[in-house]
Design brief:
By secondary structure, this protein is α+β, with helices and mostly antiparallel strands. It has one domain: Alpha-Beta Complex (Sulfite Oxidase, Chain A, domain 2). Strands 3, 4, 7, 8, 9, 11 and 12 form a seven-stranded mixed β-sheet that branches. A hairpin with a 5-residue loop joins strand 1 and strand 2. Helix 1 packs antiparallel against helix 2. The two termini are 38 Å apart.
């Protein structure tokens, strides 16, 4: 029986901002860029090569995907133009406006490696992976540790579907994820003081929670490069740095991964990074957040408003104290 109880983060369908207001796309590949990319990708198959030359995405046929009505919001969607040009992506620099530099990243061919404690390690082309998975659109909050927030219509598939495909062994209690390593096109990766490649991790309980989502598209289209194409993570109850971009590797293991920001600033960024308004960052408060696109400030909610869905994961972990939320 379907019980229509209103969750604290839900928004009626009619309250979502109309799609037409968001779709004012710019051309992200110039002719020169397309030529450079096609030369770099000479070894890929004919279909992928043609897609690079024309600036199209081989997965474009899968969008827009059907929206899952279970995942709604308590606020309007953030404007697409703002979302796609206000990005943290340290591989391309420390400023927010890295969207132009990110276009240098070749995203076809792109393979995803499944490694570690699994029945049989394998590698899969990202387009084959996308074709295997049940894509859907979900409306999610996105909360940055810097105390700004967005509301985004991601398209992708539940991370549990990838876990099921990987067939991890019982000794696998964590999954480590890594992004690409291409310092020739990603200038930030030439900085030796950062622990490249970008690495993140989840417990298996977190990775298989229904909210954990592997993203391939946004606003009804394939994911743009600056937002983590062709494959990124969205874990909306955690601070945004946990949502790793441009994933090339999933490694199932028994040890907790040493993550990128945990390595860079262990006193400021922990493994868990769950949103908690009562636990400030050492240099600023987390009690409220700024909504990108409107500049409105609203109170921060525990687990970013998703406590009902994820709090059970952390039951009995009180020994971690406040570190659980950092």
């Amino acid at each position: 029986m379907l019980i229509k109880s209103r969750r604290p983060w839900e928004l009626p369908e009619a309250a979502a901002t109309p799609e037409a207001l968001f779709f004012n796309r710019r051309k992200i590949l110039t002719t020169a860029g397309a030529i450079a990319l096609s030369g770099a990708l000479a070894s890929c198959d004919a279909k992928s090569s043609a897609a690079v030359k024309t600036g199209t995405d081989p997965s474009a046929k899968f969008y827009p995907a059907k929206r899952d009505p279970l995942y709604k919001l308590d606020r309007a969607l953030s404007p697409e133009r703002v979302v796609e040009t206000y990005n943290n992506y340290y591989e391309f620099g420390t400023e927010k406006e890295i969207y132009e530099d990110a276009q240098a990243l070749p995203i076809r061919p792109w393979s995803v490696s499944i490694e570690g404690e699994v029945e049989k390690p394998f590698t899969v082309a990202v387009d084959d992976l996308i074709a295997k998975m049940p894509l859907e659109e979900r409306l999610y909050r996105h909360r940055c540790v810097e105390a700004w927030a967005m509301a985004v219509p991601w398209t992708g598939f539940a991370m549990k579907s990838l876990v099921d495909l990987a067939k991890p062994l019982s000794k696998a209690t964590f999954v480590e994820m890594q992004t690409f390593m291409k310092p020739d096109v990603a200038s930030g990766q030439r900085q030796p003081w950062y622990p490249w490649p970008y690495t993140e991790g989840l417990t298996m309980a977190e990775a298989t929670n229904p909210l954990a989502f592997l993203v391939t598209g946004v606003y009804g289209k394939p994911l743009p490069k600056q937002m983590g194409a062709p494959l990124r993570l969205a874990v909306p109850w955690k601070y945004g740095f946990k949502s790793i971009k441009a994933i090339v590797r999933f490694r199932f293991q028994s040890a907790q991964p040493k993550t990128y920001w945990q390595t860079v600033g262990p006193t400021e960024y922990g493994f868990w990074a769950n949103v908690n308004p009562k636990v400030p960052h050492p240099r600023w408060s987390q009690a409220s957040e700024r909504l990108i696109g409107t500049e409105q400030r609203v109170p921060t909610q525990l687990f970013n408003g998703y406590a009902e869905q994820v709090a059970a994961i952390y039951k009995g972990m009180g020994g971690l104290g406040d570190r659980l939320y950092r």
